[in-house]
Amino acid sequence: CLFSYVCHIFSMAAEFLVMLYEYSPLFYISVIAVCFTITVAVVLGWFGFDVPVLLRSSDEAESVLPVPERKMVQVMNPFALEMGSTTASVIEGLLLRPCCLEDCVLSCFWGCEMQALQTALQKHQRELLLLTHLLFQEALESSSLHLQSFNASVQKKEKEEHFTQMPLDLGVRDFGMLPRNRYPLVAVLTLAHPETRDNYNIAASVTVIHVPDDKYRLSARILFQYLLTAQGNLLDLKPLFMSADTCSTTGTTEPSSSTQEPEPQSQSQGTKREESDSEEEWPDTQGRDCVVCQNAPINRVLLPCRHACVCDGCVWRFQHCPICRAFVLESFTLTNRGAEEEEDNVEE
User: 293 and 221: one domain?
Assistant: First the structure.
């Protein structure tokens, strides 16, 4: 079909050139020939346009530029927060399950103003004030409808559920129609003891949660999470996506070492960084196969789609994600294989 189409184009072009030749403008003939050559080159993909792979040669496919690798640094995150499995609403309340490496303080701000939260986060970037739960309370309590704080009950490495609820006597059943100017619930985790704050680069965790009400019945879910560092940066904690038969990475996982890329600080929303869990947090992925070669374990996360689906060898062969076909801008590793092999050799 393609061959007949090309032949038809050549025949039409030949007839057109003959007609022009009868009027003898040699310049017109040259222009038409150049335009025809450029058109054929575009159709066949000689200039790298996104044409079907069948029209490209194998040599050209192998010459695709490799996906750049994002350099990451390891940071210890002591905070983790999950929602309980029970149904939640503004009237019935919500179960939160923190699991932290140290004793923490959980502060729940119901009906927190959006502008107040963003102002507090920017204030942390400029003045480094929001490092303790008391300073968080001072920054957000006046702009929230209700504050519930669990000062002494969040013990380290214990997954105890904590029930938080908007008091019924306030008469708040919803937060208005969309667009809103208040978040339903903002949960803040900070370290309880001053002596432990110097051991971690992460000073606090801020989790914005949607809770259904009478006006907006979307199920309860975590909207976004921020990690605040002691240096005044914001890390945007994002989920990674894997196939259902390997590991679910949506939501917040156990606190552990995470890898991050140092990036320039932003003035408004802070630094946004991709978060990935350490090898201890990915026990199932070590024996899982790459979706491309089915021979090596998954060890690469593609950006910006954040699909963890390929190994170190196959990531250089593709410019599109094998799962969602999104264009891959860069990638990062889940575990540092080279460092692990060197450590094994030293132990031997």
Answer: no
